[in-house]
């Protein structure tokens, strides 16, 4: 039954995307139209998740203003995290994701044009990513980052011990708020084990109160990085206290 359900989920993931792709292609030809392409991302998620029978259970401790820019940081334990973000946030945002995503047929084209693909092994690419992200934030577009730098955790949904601080630096330089987001269950729905087997489970999430950066400097990077991690982690502990260890 799990394999049948997985085929069902994969089928609709592909079909909905293929149906929308001509419109993606059109809106991606001009940067002035990228906000429309972003809306299609949200529409895709709004159609896809109900077709899979995945019910959302959202907890908004803070409701982001769709007209303002933020740096959103979330734990990352499933490929489903990217799609789920389209349901969680109404803001016009860009993902910072690994360059290998750009190699996926059609989806990679959309991602490269609409979001930010970074080669994590290249300092030059990291510098260019920072430059592009700062420009977007200054122009009022939000940034979404998984500060673990990919699906790194060995104990999902908890975050890996060492987080990358690029997101925190962006927020401090532009003086925009950091909004942590906790995804406790995506690792159960679609585990990162290479099998692509879905499990029907409620998709829960929490959008936390913003962490302000006004008046802070790059000397506060380490403190803020730890604060983001602790905020996300404390929420995850509520769901899976038995899985938490101090080594996460």
Describe this structure in words.
This protein is α/β, with parallel strands linked by helices and 248 residues long. The chain has one domain: Glycerol-3-phosphate (1)-acyltransferase, CATH 3.40.1130.10. It has helices at residues 2-27, 34-51, 80-88, 107-114, 123-138, 166-174, 186-189, 221-239; strands at 56-60, 71-74, 93-98, 116-118, 142-145, 178-182, 203-207. Strand 3, helix 4 (107-114) and strand 4 (116-118) form a beta-alpha-beta unit.
Topology (elements, then pairings):
Elements: H1 2-27, H2 34-51, E1 56-60, E2 71-74, H3 80-88, E3 93-98, H4 107-114, E4 116-118, H5 123-138, E5 142-145, H6 166-174, E6 178-182, H7 186-189, E7 203-207, H8 221-239
Parallel strand pairs: 1-7, 2-5, 2-6, 3-4, 3-5
Antiparallel strand pairs: 6-7
Helix pairs in contact: 1-2, 2-3, 5-6
Main traits of this protein?
248 residues; alpha/beta; Glycerol-3-phosphate (1)-acyltransferase; seven-stranded mixed beta sheet; 8 helices; 7 strands
E-strand count: 7
The whole-angstrom Rg is: 17 Å
- Under CATH, the topology can be stated as Glycerol-3-phosphate (1)-acyltransferase
* Structure classification: alpha/beta
What is the percentage of strand-forming residues?
Answer: 5-15%
Q: CATH homologous superfamily - what is it?
A: Glycerol-3-phosphate (1)-acyltransferase
Mean pLDDT: 94
Separation of the first and last Cα atoms = 33 Å
Elements, N to C (H/E): HHEEHEHEHEHEHEH
Instruction: Name the CATH architecture.
Output: 3-Layer(aba) Sandwich
Residue share in helices?
40-55%
Number of separate helices: 8
């Amino acid at each position: 039954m799990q394999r049948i359900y997985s085929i069902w989920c994969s089928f609709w993931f592909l079909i909905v995307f293929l149906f929308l792709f001509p419109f993606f292609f059109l809106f991606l030809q001009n940067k002035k139209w990228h906000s429309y392409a972003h809306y299609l991302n949200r529409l895709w998620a709004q159609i896809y998740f109900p077709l899979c029978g995945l019910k959302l259970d959202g907890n908004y401790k803070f409701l982001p203003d769709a007209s303002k820019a933020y740096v959103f940081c979330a734990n990352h334990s499933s490929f489903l995290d990217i799609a789920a973000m389209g349901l969680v946030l109404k803001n016009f945002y860009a993902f910072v994701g690994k360059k290998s995503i750009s190699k996926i047929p059609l989806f990679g084209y959309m991602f490269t044009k609409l979001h930010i693909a970074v080669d994590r092994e290249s300092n030059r690419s990291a510098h260019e990513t920072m430059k592009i992200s700062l420009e977007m934030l200054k122009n009022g577009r939000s940034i979404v980052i998984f500060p673990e730098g990919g699906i790194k955790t060995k104990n999902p949904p908890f975050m890996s011990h060492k987080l990358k601080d690029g997101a925190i630096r962006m927020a401090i330089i532009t003086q925009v708020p950091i909004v942590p987001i906790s995804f406790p269950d995506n690792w159960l729905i679609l585990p990162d084990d290479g099998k692509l087997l879905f499990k029907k489970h409620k998709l829960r999430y929490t959008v936390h109160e913003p962490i302000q950066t006004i008046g802070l400097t790059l000397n506060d990077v380490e403190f803020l990085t730890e604060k983001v991690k602790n905020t996300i982690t404390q929420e995850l502990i509520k769901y899976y206290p038995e899985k938490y260890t101090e080594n996460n």
